[in-house]
Design brief:
InterPro entries: Gal_Oxase/kelch_b-propeller, Kelch-typ_b-propeller, RAG2. One of its GO terms (cellular component) is DNA recombinase complex. The protein is mostly beta strands and about 250 residues long. The protein contains one helix and 22 strands. The chain has two domains: about 180 residues, no CATH class; about 70 residues, no CATH class. About 0% of the residues lie in helices and about 45% in strands. Strands 5, 6, 7, 8, 9 and 10 form a six-stranded mixed β-sheet that branches. The chain has a four-stranded antiparallel β-sheet with strand order 1-2-3-4, with no helix packed on it. It is globular.
Length: about 250
């Protein structure tokens, strides 16, 4: 999750969870900051673990984190992901089996690390490797994969977060303009809320070769088709995607 520079603080990133090559799943939260001050403009990276208290999200991967702003306050929204089966349900045969995490929304502030969990009736099924786009007090969850049904339903939810004095108020709405997609790459194309979706999967063995532009405004979220790049034969023939956003409209694919 990227944090824009504010109040003299540099650009920074939140990193939560993830799966290691040893099949360990983390529940840690880190704040990665960048500093390029000085005459030689040398880039310095600093990483600090952040402690959370309260209703803390468990270890997971394949989830999203987004920043929302409401009533002059800022908070982080965490949703989705998958993890190992609960300890009481695991057997020798299913020891490394993963399941969708319960569809709770976790909300926490970065200053004090206070975390709360919220269940909403519209979010009744777990999902992983979905997309999340945030603008002001709204987060849009797009697509995703469900282990329970082994499918990528064209889901689209709009989560609204009001950071009231005392307890936050969350509401969710199901929209009918979603797309079937998982594990796609998002890159922002400028200071406004415009993004490009590239890559991802329509099915386990079917890559999504189309591209889309996503626009967030005061009316909601809008998807527009975008002409894809001229794919190389290696990318066309490969069954997998591997890549990441490089920021400001650039994407690295391998």
């Amino acid at each position: 999750c990227r944090l824009d520079p504010y109040d003299g603080f540099p650009e920074s990133y939140l990193i939560h969870g993830g799966r290691t090559p040893n099949n360990e799943i983390s529940s840690s939260l880190y704040l990665l900051t960048t500093d390029s001050r000085g005459c030689n403009r040398k880039l310095t990276l600093r990483c600090k673990e952040k402690e959370l208290v309260g209703e803390v999200p468990g270890a997971r991967y394949g989830h999203t984190m987004s920043m929302v702003q409401s009533r002059g306050k800022t908070a982080c929204v965490l949703f989705g992901g998958r993890s190992y089966m609960p300890a009481g349900e695991r057997t020798t045969e299913s020891w490394n089996s993963v399941v969708d995490c319960p569809p709770q929304v976790f909300l926490f502030d970065l200053e004090f690390g206070c975390c709360s969990a919220h269940s909403l009736p519209e979010l009744s099924n777990g999902q992983s490797f979905h997309l999340a786009f945030a603008r002001e007090d709204c987060v849009y969850f797009v697509g995703g994969h469900s282990i329970a049904s082994d499918s990528r339903p064209p889901r689209l939810f709009r989560l609204r977060v009001e950071l009231l004095q005392g307890s936050p108020l969350l509401s969710c709405e199901t929209l009918d303009t979603g797309i079937s997609i998982s594990s796609a790459i998002i890159t922002r194309t400028g200071p406004t809320h415009r993004y490009i979706i590239l890559g991802g999967y329509k099915a386990d063995s079917q890559k999504r070769m189309e591209c889309s532009t996503v626009i967030l405004d005061e009316k909601g979220i809008h998807f527009e088709p975008l002409e894809p790049p001229k794919w190389t034969p290696d990318i066309i023939q490969s069954r997998t995607w591997f890549g990441s956003s490089l920021g400001e409209g650039s994407i690295l694919l391998a």
